[in-house]
Amino acid sequence: MLEQVTTILAALVTRQHPCQMDMGDDEDQEDIGETSEYDWLAVDTALDVVIGLSAALGSQFGELWKVFGKPVMKLASSQEAFERSTAIGVVAECTAHMGSAVTPYTGTLLKLLLHRLTDEDPESRSNAAYATGLLIQHSEDAGTYGPAYPEILHKLEPLLQTERARTLDNAAGCVSRMITAHPDKVPIGDVLPVLAGLLPLKEDFEENAPIYSCIVGLYQAGNSVVQELTPQLVPVFAAVLGEPKEQLEEETRAKLVETVKYIAKQQPALIQGHAVLAAL
What we know:
Helix content: over 70%
Oligomer: single chain
């Protein structure tokens, strides 16, 4: 059954399924445009199912990426911006679901994502930042992605200065995942103040998990930069621990609450002005 599904999906993604074949040459221009729209709908729907498969199979999806990887990456290099952004989003979601099984594909995916971090399309850049962070989080091939840290940070810099909320959130999440994976490879003294200045996130609350896990980890490691930023971070903690509740997943919330309690013992005056934090 899985083999049949894989075969059909691969045909749809590569536009080789019978339902996508041109049945004649007598279409007028309007029909051609409509056919093109339906053609992408078939591809897009198939890509959604590919993501669903990766969620269902987890690490086992790593084997299926041998089938889907090449056509998805081809779409990620399409002339059409919406095809590129969609395909890069698929790379991100599949990476998240297959976890460390993405490791053998680190080199090819990294090459693609480094290129797309400077894509002319803002949604493609945003998705590339998201995917890059997830690749670093899940891949065990630090020997491949580690040397690319300076280049990634350089390409993320303009994304951290944009006014587009979703792009800011994804870039901030990427930086946080990079710090968590290898704090020694990131100039934390330069990067963390920029990251703190972007908080709290306005749109993509999903990225709060890597961001606050990173910050909590730095407190636990006794990092001096995060300690110095505490007066700036405390109002942020008050904001994300308040309403709306969906800003933080329960696990992230619990970690942050413990950090706030630690700060309260060290610098109680910083906490007293925030009712949400004082009540913890």
